[in-house]
Design a protein that fits this description.
CATH architecture of the largest domain in chain A: 3-Layer(aba) Sandwich
CATH topology of chain B: Ferritin
Strand order of the largest sheet of chain A: 14-15-16-13-12-18-19
Strand content of chain A: 15-25%
Order of helices and strands of chain B: HHHH
Structural class of chain A: alpha/beta
Helix content of chain A: 25-40%
Largest sheet of chain B: none
Largest interface: A-B, 27 and 21 residues
Oligomer: heterodimer
Distance between the termini of chain A: 78 Å
Number of domains of chain B: 1
Chain lengths: 494, 138
């Protein structure tokens, strides 16, 4: 099968988008953006100075008052236009994501769809951000109203694994509710947002309502410390999420900081095995394991479940087609970079050193035509105990740790002991077992016979424990709440 | 054998691609010059297949969800591959319609478990292709 064409071979030096204009970055340094499948440089991303971030924050604040005074229905209209433009460019967005991030075209199209869905949900601002009131609510003749109000300029610091969707967990809701916004894409995958920002530019937002600035963690810290920013949305690893939470809170900001994960997929002996295997493969190897919702531990409960699922899972894993994501037959692409690959290989070595049995080794995979790519094949360890590093830490790669347990109570205990609480899934046909699992497991996303528990745009995307710092999540009504405050008005007319 | 010589179907994208390749090839064949009674049928069927192609492309855009991105490991696509070297356009079209009908019919139960709406599309396209083949034979 022929490869789908790349949108461009090279995207050149990327720019920043401030106050409705594309501007050359004020930067001393540019990083290379690399296609992880080919290891070729496809763009240069600027490490923007703190001075220029001030310009973006000023623009966002200057635009705020006029934008917050724009009727919500008019704001929604711009988002409708935005949705239309995104639909027209759906395939291009997907292909750029494959090129810079490494995911497969199927995964990228799925991400593009979720990106658009967030835009669609945010268009519902006229009802989502409606306040409430109570006549005679305070006393006879004295009414009480709660008005949902925007707050000002917000910013998002985005990760590498979902270059399009994750900014859209936040910014459409922020601007729909009358705030203004700055997005800082990941320096590893900035091209997608560069392209999407070109589309945003066409949608009709007034200058300064949406801004996009490229840069490093220093720029992110500057946003967190900036007095002109009301709140920060972040997605990344847990240690960084904690840093973002602490630093932003120190500067009096609202924060929603999504961290890492160590997700268990539990298989009971009464599970529908064929379907379980197919579904769990997508969870473990989708996006090359670089999802915060990816399965990481495969947990068969009891010998019968182990015998039913593990040998078949290993055989099916061997058939996963690894390659460049623009080949539509590819099941799994590369990891995001050579550095990520090195880190994952380190975890595999650690698994061996700690005594786990490496039953499928993806370390030396060769992909014809892409010999320099950051590929790791499906990798499986059996004989993993809960105290081993590969069972506890976030690997963020296509590495499966098979951790046997004896009962669902043991499983719940193991999951709840983890500092992470992003997702957990159980495969069973028994309703009582499923209910016990969903009731007791301390995680933000629970799957019952589903391995990728990705909340839709109209549900909050959250996590428990070290997987999320904050109290209001991205997407849906949680996002509306994060970007607004309640102003209570008590009225008496003499 | 041209376009349909796929190396395999291994996921949602390649399965949908197989379908759209059938439709694109049929649009191409129906665009060829034929004489007599077939000419009118070719013009009408070309339009139908353009519409079908649009419907499948829309399905790919709208129905794709992360939850159903499961690898497909048990489908031998080669058995549906049509011969594409038939010189008579009418016979070529019949070959394609019949292979497409078989493919869509076989895919209907597979889709039913993961995407009911695409299953319904497959069911309809299969019947329609059989109908077109019968009309071309008449």
């Amino acid at each position: 099968m022929a490869l789908l064409p790349e949108y461009k071979k090279n995207y050149g030096k990327l720019k920043n988008y401030i106050n409705g204009e594309w501007v050359e970055a004020d930067a001393d340094k540019y990083d290379n953006v690399v296609n992880p499948a080919t290891n070729e440089v496809i763009a240069q991303v600027p490490m923007t100075s703190k001075k220029q971030i001030n310009e973006a924050v000023d623009a966002a604040n200057e635009a705020w008052w006029a934008w917050r005074s724009t009727p919500p229905v008019t704001r929604a209209r711009v988002l409708f236009k935005m949705k239309e433009i995104l639909e027209q460019n759906y395939e291009t967005i997907a292909r750029i994501m494959v090129q810079e991030q490494g995911k497969t075209i199927d995964e990228a199209r799925g991400e593009a769809r979720r990106t658009i869905e967030n835009c669609e949900v945010a268009t519902g601002v006229t009802t989502l951000a409606m306040g409430y009131n109570l006549e005679d609510g305070a006393a006879e003749g004295i009414d009480e109203d709660a008005i949902i109000s925007p707050l000002g300029a917000f910013a998002a610091i985005c990760p590498f694994n979902f270059p399009a969707m994750i900014p859209f967990w936040f910014w459409p809701y922020a601007v729909a509710t009358g705030n203004t916004y700055i997005v800082k894409p990941s320096r590893q995958v900035p091209i997608t947002m560069q392209f999407i920002t070109e589309l945003i530019d066409k949608a009709g937002f007034p200058p300064g309502v949406f801004n996009m600035v490229n840069g490093s963690h220093e720029l992110a810290d500057a946003l967190m410390a900036h007095p002109g920013i009301k709140g920060i949305s972040f997605v990344g690893s847990s240690p960084i999420a904690k840093h973002v939470y602490e630093l932003s809170a120190h500067y009096g900001k609202r924060v929603q900081a999504q961290g890492g994960a160590k997700n268990s997929l539990v298989v009971m002996e009464d599970a529908a095995i064929d379907k379980t295997i197919k579904n769990s493969l997508a969870s473990f190897y989708g996006c090359a394991g670089q999802r915060c919702l990816a399965g990481s531990n495969l947990v068969p409960v009891g010998k019968k479940a182990y015998d039913a699922v593990v040998p078949q899972f290993i055989e099916a894993s061997k058939k996963i087609k690894v390659g460049y994501g623009l080949n539509e037959e590819t099941n799994m692409g590369p990891v995001v970079s050579q550095a990520a690959k090195k880190k994952i290989l380190g975890y595999i070595q650690k698994g061996i050193d700690e005594g786990a049995k490496l039953v499928l080794d993806g370390r030396n995979i060769k992909v014809k035509g892409y010999e320099n790519g950051a590929f790791i094949g499906p990798t499986i360890f059996t004989g993993v105990t809960p105290d081993m590093t590969i069972a506890k830490e976030e690997i963020f790669g296509p590495v499966v740790a098979v951790v046997e347990q004896n009962s669902v109570d043991d499983v719940i205990e193991m999951i709840n002991k983890s500092p992470f609480g992003n997702a957990a899934s159980i495969y069973t046909q028994n309703g009582a077992t499923a209910r016990k699992f969903r009731y007791n497991v301390q995680a933000g996303n629970i799957g019952i016979n589903i391995g990728i528990v990705a909340a839709m745009a109209y549900f909050p995307f959250g996590g428990y424990k070290d997987s999320f710092f904050g109290n209001m999540h991205g997407q849906g009504i949680d996002a509306i709440n994060f970007f607004t405050d309640r102003k209570v008005v008590i009225t008496r007319w003499f | 054998m041209g376009k349909c010589e796929f190396s395999g179907i291994s996921n949602f994208a390649s399965l949908l691609r197989y379908m759209t390749d059938f439709e694109e090839t049929l649009v191409e064949v129906y665009g060829k010059q034929v004489s007599g009674a077939a000419a009118e049928k070719f013009a009408a069927f070309a339009e139908k297949h353009k519409k079908r192609l649009g419907e499948l492309e829309l399905a790919r855009r709208e129905k794709l969800r992360e939850e159903i991105l499961e690898p497909i490991m048990d489908l031998d696509s080669k058995k549906y591959c049509p011969k594409l070297d038939i010189s008579d356009p009418v016979k070529q079209a019949i070959e394609l319609e019949e292979k497409a009908a078989k493919f869509y019919a076989d895919m209907t139960p597979r889709w039913r478990t993961i995407q009911g709406e695409i299953a319904r599309i497959c069911e309809r396209l299969s019947k329609q292709s059989l109908e077109f083949a019968a009309k071309l034979k008449a």
